[in-house]
Design goal:
By secondary structure, this protein is an alpha+beta fold. The strands form four sheets. Strands 1, 7, 8, 9, 10, 11, 12 and 13 form an eight-stranded antiparallel sheet that branches. A five-stranded antiparallel sheet has the order 4-3-2-5-6. A hairpin with a 3-residue loop joins strand 16 and strand 17. Helix 2 runs antiparallel to helix 5, helix 6 runs antiparallel to helix 7 and helix 8 packs across helix 12. The radius of gyration is 30 Å and the shape is flat.
Length: 609
Amino acid sequence: MSDLPVPLPPGAAPASAPAWLSHDALRWADPRLPRWAEPRWPALALLLTVIAAILLEPEQPCTVAAPCGPDWLGMIQMGLAVVQLPWYFRLPELTLVSGPVLAVLVAVEEFPLPGTAEAANAAVIAALAFGWAASWQRLALRRRQRHLAEQAAAGVRHPLPEDIGPLRRGLVPVAAGFVLCAVAGVAVGLGLRGVHEDEQRAAKAESVSAVVIGHGEDTLRVRASDGSKRTVDAAYPDDYDTDSAVILLSDGDWSRLAAEPYDAFGWQLLTLAAGLPGLTLLAVGVLARRRAAALRRAPVPVLRVLQRVDHNVDTWIYAADDTAGRTPLLRCLAYPVIDDEAGEDSPADDEDEDWPDVDTRLREAVLYGPPYDVGELVIVTADWDGNRAVLLTSGPVRLPKGDQGPELERPVEDVVEQRDPKLVERAAVSMRPVARPVRWGPGVFTRCSAVLGAVFVAAVIKFALDEVRAGTLGWHVLPLLGLAFAPGGLADFLNWRVTADRSGLWLAGAYKVRHLTWEELRAVAYTGGVLEIRRVDGKTWAPSLGWPWMERRLRVRPSYVRAVEEISAMHAHPELRPTEESQPRDRGLPLGPVLAVLYVLWAVALLIL
């Protein structure tokens, strides 16, 4: 196979289109988004502060003076807090509006989120301000990219090719979003109707004193002042002690607790379940459609580039003079223009389970439209037969992260062993001898998952202690005894570490740091997210480190995969091993005991307070 890019067919693109050369392309790609502005950080900050606010909620029993009821404003607040998380990643434009709105609602309400105190309110508002600044930074980067791409085009503009077909981009998410928003609207209407009917009935009812004589799962058994016994619904029956006095509203055979009006929680839950994804889909579709339509309205900048398709059917774009394909600039999903009778299926929909051969050679191409993060493009290139092909983006343009690049080899199984010669040699070729120790540890995705798990465990502890205080602790909480194993698993996810130095490997797990010399090492492998470092005496160090299926979907290359490859190369090629000894502080800190102590202190604080 020739190393030269596949040329464009004669006359396939405008002759005046300038080449996007590496010096301009690298200026376009540098600087990247600052690490603090990456969407995972504001999302994590908001998630943790909102969860903390909910966990700190003071219990407020329902009373006649302060009856429980549907909290529509609270529903809006919680809905905005939840939807901020995906919007930070996909729709930062909307967070510039939704973030300040939520911050105002949090600031003006006495208890804007369930049970928040002033400190929790301030933390939520600070997280929203951080998210707003990060979203603004991302949008500023997009504007800069558009400006630099237009500069590289040197004022050369051309209309799109005539054979690009009708505008279909965004139709499916817009239609789905409308349907879900309609469902949410109906749910709001039914909830408000239920509230209105309950208020009308309560206005005609008379107040009746009663005494609690029994409890059901979601009911109370009461004796009214006239001696009659009744069963009424109660959302929180445990809040009413036996022999305590309550007030009923009674109208014929209808009665309810005066402190508990009609609860539209079910309708509110349906509103959020349909409305939040509905709004997201609607916004995604509208924005994609607007960007695609903007390319058709007037001549757009054109740039000559190089393009290739990998085995994941991703399209990668390179500078026109990067004939080795070393530095990908952007990637996207793109499909060839097809006629109306053929439908709008993407090539990804017709993938063969046996992974058909894909021609991953670089090809000359012309971009129509300024490239930028989440933008839309039209690409004219050569197909596998060398004929002219017009590609339309079927998803937003994305910037590669770190050393991310095209998948030019077929996927391998999730089991990699040290004796795999292809693995060892590929890693050895890419590595160079180093003096300082080399370390591997959890990635951001794994650590974020561990943080969420730690918060969940704290919530479960609070639930168990609430059951103890209420005297309702039963067999159903026996599985909570499994929490004793939680610190170890969470510690592995948060801070596992493998350090390679001159003497061998230092393995930091949940509770201690082990040392393994190079002579004691037999093999390194990973299987289903478990890293296995095998000794010659048959013992194995195998902490649980992640979810490979999720990381593949997120296109994240786990650090333990790189650890397997590089440690295997060091084991097979001693010249690649570090020549210096590692320091104790570099070998990792077992967090199992720390987490155990923190959970004990958390439980003690809950019992005392």
